[in-house]
Design brief:
Strand content: under 5%
Shape: globular
Helix content: over 70%
CATH architecture of the largest domain: Orthogonal Bundle
Number of strands: 0
Number of domains: 2
Order of helices and strands: HHHHHHHHHHHHHH
Oligomer: single chain
Distance between the termini: 43 Å
Length: 281
């Protein structure tokens, strides 16, 4: 009886939307499945029709070539992990610090300053390549990983998202702490940050994905191949192996492994963090 009652609650519109979303999810995942399948095939099986999704004989030599070849992906992985993790930690902390100021500290012109800061998102990143190049050359960090790490620590989206989350936290919590003699630093570290764990985790995951997939900045500000990140290493591999489709798919598969792991671990935080950040504006 209870099951029938639950089934009767399901609306036809909701069921239709679920089916459409499921179909779109299948369409989105098919290229990834083909990529992984191709990386485990022989060259003769790549264009075989109908597609053989599960190869009869799994071939691992293409993955071995990616990881143990003359230009191993291990170096690119280490560089990307270094840049992504340091940049992610810095961006999360600095965004939280700035968001607290815009959300919990009342000062003259706060909202105007925030809107001005937010308007900077309209500036295309490509416009800043030349000024950044001049600045990095002057500071001596051009052709170093710091040319990617330092700019990556400042994210307008991160400040906006965390500000929205901080606004959803009741002011009574901060006011009670002020009455007890706590200052802004103590409130920020002892009260606000623990309550903002879902939003912080969401920003950390999103920022990690941005840093990991950043191709343009790495292309412009890195010259030495020993400093290359995974996107640059993948591009180099493709240019050097234009007809090795199996090898290219193996390299692409290696490049998305961290993103799959990060999303699988933190997907619940992404949904919870984005939902809570949209509560109050």
């Amino acid at each position: 009886m209870e099951v029938k009652k639950r089934l009767s609650i399901v609306q036809p519109g909701s069921l239709l939307i679920t089916i459409i979303m499921l179909a779109l999810a299948i369409v989105m995942i098919i290229p990834f499945l083909w990529m992984i399948s191709t990386s485990l095939k022989t060259p003769m099986e790549v264009f075989k029709y109908p597609i053989e999704w599960i190869p009869s004989n799994l071939t691992w030599e293409h993955h071995q070539k990616v990881w143990s070849g003359a230009k191993s992906f291990g170096t690119y992985y280490w560089n990307s992990l270094k840049i992504s993790i340091i940049g992610m930690v810095g961006a999360t902390f600095l965004s939280a610090f700035a968001a607290y100021g815009f959300a919990r500290i009342d000062f003259k012109g706060r909202n105007t300053l925030f809107l001005l800061y937010l308007s900077m998102m309209m500036i295309p990143p490509q416009v800043l390549f030349v000024p950044k190049f001049i600045m990095f050359e002057w500071a001596g960090i051009y052709n170093t990983h710091w040319a990617l790490i330092l700019p990556g620590m400042f994210t307008i989206f991160g400040v906006f998202m965390l500000r929205q989350f901080f606004l959803s936290i009741p002011n009574e919590i901060s006011e009670s702490a002020f009455i007890d003699g706590a200052g802004h630093f103590r409130i920020f570290f002892r009260l606000i940050l623990p309550l903002a764990k879902p939003a912080l985790a969401t920003l950390a995951i999103i920022d990690f994905s941005w840093q990991w997939n950043d191709y343009e900045n790495a292309l412009v500000f890195l010259i030495d191949e020993d400093l290359y990140t995974v996107p640059l290493g993948l591009q180099n591999f493709i240019l050097e192996n234009t007809v090795d489709y199996n090898g290219m798919m193996a390299a692409a598969s290696a490049g998305i492994i961290p993103m799959i792991i990060v999303f699988a671990v933190g997907q619940r935080y992404i949904i919870q963090g984005l939902t809570n950040s949209a509560v109050k504006g």
